[in-house]
Amino acid sequence: MNIQWYPGHMTKAKRMMQEDIKLIDIVIELLDARAPLSSKNPDIDQLAGQKFRLILLNKCDLADPSKTKLWERYFQEMGYFVVCLDSRKNAGMKVVTDTIKAACKQKIERDRKRGIINRPLRGMVVGIPNVGKSTFINSYAKKACAKVGNKPGVTKGKQWIRLGEGVELLDTPGILWPKFEDREVGIRLAYIGSINDTIIEKRELAYSFVNYLKNNYCNAMADRYNIDESKNHFDILSDIAINRCCMQKGSEPDLDKASAILFDDFRSGRLGRITLELP
Fold first, then answer.
1. 121-137, pLDDT tens digit by residue?
2. Distance CA 244, CA 261 (A)
3. Minimal CA–CA distance to 27: which of 8, 37, 38, 41?
4. What does the alpha-carbon distance between residue 148 and residue 240 come to, in Å, rounded to a whole number?
5. Contact criterion met (CB below 8 Å) for 129 and 192
C-alpha cells in the first residue's frame, strides 16, 4: 500500500492559515496520541515560525499510557509545551488554559509593561483531519461552537471562538501535507481514520493492522473476538467475520465488513489502549 490523500481544499486552507498567523500569539497543535509523530504535519513548524507552541496529545484515553509518557517527554525535550488530554471531557481544560498562559508568559509580560492588561491571548488550533480539533474547542468553550464529525474534512473554513478564560481560539480545517515520504506514515494515518476511508483498500489495510496487533498487542483480538491469533492474517480476519456473523452468500466470510468492524473497534478503544509508534 502507498497511501496519499491531499484534496484541493487543503491548499486553500493552508494559504488561509498563512495569512492569519500574524494575528496569533500561540499555535496549538493537536496530535493523535496513538500516532503522535505520524499525525504531526511537518508544514506546521514552518507555518508557526517563532510563535509560542503547545502540543495537545489528544485521544490519550485510547493510547497506551506508558508510551504516551514517552511521547510527552519527547516533545518537551524538543521545546514544546505539552498537555495530554481526552478532548471529549471538560476535566482537563483548566490545565490547557494554565499551559497557554505559561507558554505566553513573555508576551503577557511585554503587554503589562506597555500598559496593556487583560488582552485575550489568541491561539490557532491546527492539526491533521479527524484528530479532534473541533471536539476540543467545544469542550474548551463548554458549548457547541465547532462542527464535529467522526470522519476527516468536517471543518471547511476558519472560525474564531471567544472564550471566557482570556483566550480566543481560531479553529482551522485539518490539513495534511502533499506527499508522505514514509509509506508507514500514510498507513498509520489510515488506521486512525485521518485518511478518507473511501480511497483505501480496507481489506489490505486490515491485513496489515492484524499483523501489527499480533506483534505488538498480543491477545487484543483474541480477547475481543474469541479467536486464535496464531493463524495468518487472512484466517484471523475470516474468523473475525465469522465471530461477528458477517457472511456473504454461500456462507463465505465477508472480509470487507470484518475489516470495518476491526477498525471501528480500534478507533473507539474496544480493542484496548493501543499506540502505533514509539519516539
1. 999 999 999 999 989 98
2. 9
3. 41
4. 30
5. no
How far is Cα of residue 238 from the mean position of the Cα atoms in its chain?
29
pTM recorded for the entire structure: 0.89
In whole angstroms, give the CA distance from residue 89 to residue 28: 18
Cβ contacts of 69-78, under 8 Å, gap ≥ 24? 70/278, 70/279, 71/33, 71/36, 71/279, 73/279, 74/36, 74/279, 75/36
Q: Are 190 and 205 in contact (CB under 8 A)?
A: yes
Label residue 19 left, alpha or beta by phi (over 0 means left) and psi (-120 to 50 means alpha): alpha
Instruction: Read off the pLDDT of each residue in 29-42 and give the average, rounded to a whole number.
Output: 97
The runs of H, that is alpha helices, within the chain are 8-20, 42-48, 65-77, 93-103, 105-113, 133-141, 183-192, 202-216, 220-225, 233-243, 255-268
Question: How far apart (Å, rounded) are the C-alpha atoms in residues 3 and 38?
Answer: 13
